[in-house]
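Might I ask for a little of your time on a matter of protein folding? Here, with my thanks, is the record as I have it:
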Amino acid sequence: MAGHSKWSNIKHRKGAQDKRRAQLFTKLAKEVTIAAKEGGKDINFNPRLRLALEKAKKQSMPKDNIDRAIKKGTGELAGVEYIEIRYEGYGPGGTAFIVEVVTENKNRSASSVRSNFAKNGGNMGSDGAVAWMFNKKGQIILNSEGLDADEFMMEALEMGAEDLVVEDGTFEILTDPTELQVVVEALTKAGYKYEEAEIVMLPENMVEVENEEMAEKVMKLFEALEDNEDVNDVYANFDISDELMEKIMG
């Protein structure tokens, strides 16, 4: 059983607190459109679309928005041509960042992400600069209330999970990316309700941020990237204590 996952806690708390709803819907719609284009609109044969739709519904995205996004992906409605790009870079204090972008304008996105890094004490690197510090995993988050960690871990492993991270009030199930949907379906069949399920990039090792000034600099870059309209997800390897996080988040 893995230890406390500080990054997961920061990432999900930050996302829940700060993302504006309209911006979130735009990002969710892009994911639905790309998934539908990639594998068609039948969720029985398109696991990526199934997960994208579940995520959109959990965020109360209007059905009309979801339907339009699907139709744009399948070509039933006119839409822009989205491409997925990954940028890598370094932040303050030697922290590493992976930035996943969904855009219709590669030049604009590259310029804006590079600007986010430059204006916030970081610099964008070349492909592979920091990717080796991260592992691609399936991640499922669920409420752990009333569940025994050891018993649940044994059950999750039988379902195909690789590991279980115990959080404060939640369990973070980690899987091979190709097994994410299998584990999600097994959990649902067993009666468990999960909060999130997605493919993520998790850091192998964390950089300890031990003072308020550095914590503010790191979070400023993180927030700038998250607020970038072309950025779909941001992953980083910084570790900020709960006490320090409370100070800088107000």
Observations:
- DSSP finds nine helices and ten strands in the chain.
- Confidence is low (pLDDT under 50) at residues 1-9.
